[in-house]
Amino acid sequence: MSSQWLCGVLVLLAVSYGVYGQGLGEEEKEEILNAHNHYRGLVDPIATNMMKMEWDEDLAYLAQFWASACEYAENEDRNTQSTSYDYIGESFAATISYTVNYTQLIGQLWYAEKRFYNYYATACLNEDGEVEEDGGYETCGRYTQV
To answer: Where is each SCP domain found (predicted)?
Structure first.
């Protein structure tokens, strides 16, 4: 039995998956990057200065290292693993498919959480529309990473 893990470490962007230790090809990197930039362009209200993300091989290496462990848990040490960034965000997704539509995956799993984000309160909301007391990562934390 084999499985693929998609582990996103997002600041400038790194998304990586492991199938027996393999990383992403150039076409997959481009698809992931294009999908992220597409969904970032759909924020509401429209951003006045939304920066385009760029692929970062150092972040991709960290993501691949963590994904290769095949442990579905947060990397609590991610802020000390990079000297280039003060903070490295992280989002997870998993699939058992050998073919992955990254645009669809990012949209369905991460961007779809937009419905729980309130821009004016700068907060995540629960199912009842109330502000989450713990910051709301469970309801829209991956959306805010995108």
So the answer is: 27-145
